[in-house]
Amino acid sequence: MAIEKVTDIPSDNVYAYALSKTLTKVSSPVTVGLYSECQNRINMVLKNIEVYMNQEAKRREEKYTKGAKPRSITPSISDVLSLILRLLFYRPVWTEQNQNTKNIRYMFVRFSAWHFAGSDLLWAGLVMQLTKAIQNNFGKLQLGLFRIAQHDEEKDGGKKKIEDISKHWRSKKLGCIPIWALILIGFIGSLLILVPLIIFGFPDLKKHQEGEKVEDPSGYGALEGIAIAVLGVPAVGALRFILLLLKNLIFNQDLKIRQGLDNKKVSQQLGLMHEVRKEMRLLCCFIYFMEIFERRRIRVVLEITNLDRCTPKKIVGVLDAINILLSDDESPFISVLAVDPEVLVGQVQQAEDCLSKRDSAYDFLDRIITLPFTVPPLSDVSKSIVFGNIVRGQSEMPEDIPLEETGALAAGCPATSVSVEDECSVKYSETEEQAIPLIAKKGNVETFAAAELNLEEVDKLTESAFSYISSRDKSKLQTYISGDTMSMRRVINSIRVTIMIMETRKLEPPPPDKIAAWVVLADLWPCRLSWILQCVEDDQQSDEIDGSFCAADNTKTLWEVFNYNSLELCIIGHTVENFLERDGDPELFEVFLRKDFKFTVGELEMFKLCTVNLNYSIKNELARVRGSRRLKRAGRNAFLSLSSRTVMNMKTEAICQELSKLSFPEKYLNTVRENFIDGRTILFSDPRDLRQVLQMTLGEWMTFKIRFLGVTPSNRTAQAKTPDATNPGVVICPSGQ
User: InterPro entries annotated for this entry (predicted)?
Assistant: First the structure.
């Protein structure tokens, strides 16, 4: 199948679908970085993810035929009574069967950080929102009963022990007798004692009422004591249980956290974090309990939005909370951090005392994010649709567009209708696992061809890519893959998403080793790959304008593109130093692209449609820096200045020839020869040192500078003359001036 031109197909639904399918396959906990500059696009992708994940959960339950069906999410009266009995008298048993069940339920919790921005501890608001959502989904009474009758901090603090038995529940026992049996015996015994006493009364009281003399009242007193003891102990136990339950229903964890926030002595110490961590562990254990009861796995998808609008310190606090509270090995949480990456990185970089000197904001995020997912820029067709919606006064990203099902499907294969034409959330119907069509059909608008998603092919390619990386004989990627386990998780998850998008877009997938290598390239050298993308894009635009040499020829290798533009990257290196520090070994980068994996520009054009683990904020910053240099280049052309590449390749005699053309005196030519001044010396030496060696007048120096170094803006000149406040008399001279 030839590679199709798919650049004009709107893709937001495709990306949302690919991400949702990946999240249904990865094991929790996982933290997703959902990156986009447009908040509306983020909201749309989040809504579509909810639809697709719920659709997948529903499909799995309908297809499930082994054993008992999962319980209804909306419990009946009998289910509630059964849950209460199991909370009181049974403990769950973790078995291979209930831990590996494919049935799953997703619970979505939206946390808008902006709503809690006024709190000193923003992460505490996140925990409160999560606790409230779990209470609303499962019930306050059920959570309170679990806290009293089930939760044991010591027993539940460790990992779950998998047992090889068929039973999913085990009775709580006191000694060798189940507690429910003891209570039942006590209840029957109480009835046997209480009923005769009520009917016949105590003998001494009866005789006393009849005026008879009691010969030995001590015997009857002992009988009364036994009766009171038998009846009183269960009553006291029941009363204590009811009081504890009422306490947990009235004074819940929300109130406890608020009290801790109000108490400065607690909130300023580790006490509050410790209490909150214990509460998070209790919630996890409660979810594990409900998994056994409902006969399905339960995953809580925490969607964190608007975090980039908060102050730097609060942002770092929330990120730390995600890393500390929600990332235990067996945690059932999937955290989706939906932000503008450029703003978030800038805010984190400004956080005081939160990053070490060796760390950057990107390093900090890399330790938390296990699946970076960047929503690529809108395609041309998507832009026209959104623009038309705004002109008509509609929402930028429509949300409720009716979809129609196609009849051209394989027999016996239900379909899911997904509009890939509108950036919108979708309605869904049941699907089979092997073929899921994505169709575009709406009114009189142009309809795109249906894309049939073969999940068997996706799984086959994914496994092939993974086996290629792990193969010691065939693969060379072991040399390049980072030893950091978080980086390995990002590579694994990104490979899944990349293959899913390729199959959805009906692209002919390249060999699995190429897919794996591309994902590793984007993970290890994001800045250098972003630079190549930007150079290719600029050269294509330049070729469209004036038909000049195009470095983006599809047969040209990426190493040739990088090597041709490496001088410019070297010159602006100080400006993008923070990005370059993220990259891995530069020598390995050269071996990777020059020898082992010779990617071409044509392959880059295909891969960039499916690359979601590359942060586009890096490319945007490189585009700004390169754009400012192009303004200087325009100034060079106006003043007949030489380009940096031309000056770099000039020898000493070539410099002298240029000076002769500018009618400089012979003494300057001799000075150039005596000091072996060539193009590299002019570009990389301090301009003040260069002028001092040449001993030029102001007018001569400006002529020389314009010719060889280009035009310097007046604001930078003024900045260079500004004395350093901390070192009087020292002049700051920006590089390149």
Answer: KAP_P-loop, NTPase_KAP_P-loop, SAM_KIDINS220
* Nearest Cα residue to 46 out of 21, 80, 19: 19
**Residue 394 pLDDT level (bands cut at 50, 70, 90):** low
Kindly report whether the peptide bond that precedes residue 29 is cis, defined as omega within 30 degrees of 0.
yes
| CA 243, 246, 247, 253 torsion-angle sign | positive
Whole-angstrom distance, CA of residue 98 vs CA of residue 101: 5
SS3 per residue for 325-362: HCCCCCCCEEEEEEECHHHHHHHHHCCCCCCCCCCCHH
Torsion sign, CA atoms 447, 449, 454, 455: negative
The residue written with tokens 């939206």 in the block is 110
Residue 626's nearest CA partner among 707, 562, 553, 535 is: 535
Would you give the distance in Å from CA 56 to the centre of its chain?
20
Considering the chain, what percentage of its residues have pLDDT values greater than 90? 10
User: Rounded to whole angstroms, how far apart are CA atoms 222 and 245?
Assistant: 35
Model confidence pLDDT, tens digit, residues 638-653? 566 777 778 888 888 8
Q: CA–CA separation, 289 vs 283, rounded Å?
A: 10
Looking at the DSSP bridge assignments, the partners of residue 452 are 437
- By the 8 A CB rule, do 636 and 710 touch? yes
Task: Tally Cβ neighbours within 10 Å of residue 140.
Answer: 15
Phi and psi, residue 438, nearest 5°: -110, 110
Q: What's the number of CA atoms in the CB half-sphere (13 Å) around residue 698?
A: 0
Over the stretch 251-298, which tens digit does the pLDDT of each residue have?
555 555 555 555 555 444 456 677 778 888 888 889 999 999 998 999
Residue 109 has a pLDDT of: 92
Closest C-alpha to 451, from 408, 389, 493: 408
Q: How confident is the model at residue 336 (pLDDT cuts 50, 70, 90)?
A: very high
First and final CA of the chain: distance in angstroms? 54
Query: How far is Cα 119 from Cα 117, in angstroms, rounded to an integer?
Result: 5
| Structure tokens, 469 | 């990386």
Structure tokens at 357: 């000197």
Separation CA 514–CA 519 (nearest Å): 9
Beta strands per DSSP E along 53-181: 90-92, 104-112, 169-171, 173-174, 177-178
Torsion sign over Cα 25, 30, 36, 38: positive
Only one residue has tokens 């979708």, namely 426
Q: Quick check: 241 and 148 in contact, CB under 8 A?
A: yes
> Which residue is listed with tokens 């106006």?
638
Answer yes or no: are the C-beta atoms of 379 and 9 closer than 8 Å.
yes
Least confident span in 251-265, 378-392, 489-503: 251-265
**Residues with Cβ within 8 Å of residue 668, at least 6 apart in sequence:** 659, 694, 696, 700
How remote is the C-alpha of 175 from its chain's centroid? 48
Ramachandran class of 724: left when φ > 0, alpha when ψ lies in -120 to 50, beta otherwise:
beta
Based on DSSP, count helices (H) and strands (E) in the chain, helices before strands. Answer: 34, 11
Which stretches within 173-270 are classed as H helix? 179-200, 203-210, 217-250, 253-262, 264-267
Q: Output the pLDDT for position 76.
A: 85
The upper half-sphere exposure of residue 180, i.e. CA atoms within 13 Å in the direction of its Cβ, equals: 11
The whole-angstrom separation of Cα 709 and Cα 643 is: 8
User: Which two three-digit tokens encode residue 285?
Assistant: 């254990």
Q: What is the pLDDT of residue 412?
A: 36
**Distance of CA 611 to CAs 5, 522, 602, Å?**
16, 8, 14
3-state helix, strand, coil in the chain (%, to 5): 55, 10, 35
At residue 510, the 3 state secondary structure works out as coil
Distance from chain centroid for Cα 592: 28
Q: How confident is the model over 706-719, as pLDDT tens digits?
A: 888 775 544 444 33
Beta bridge partners of 438: 451
- As a whole number of angstroms, the distance between CA 355 and CA 115 comes to 26
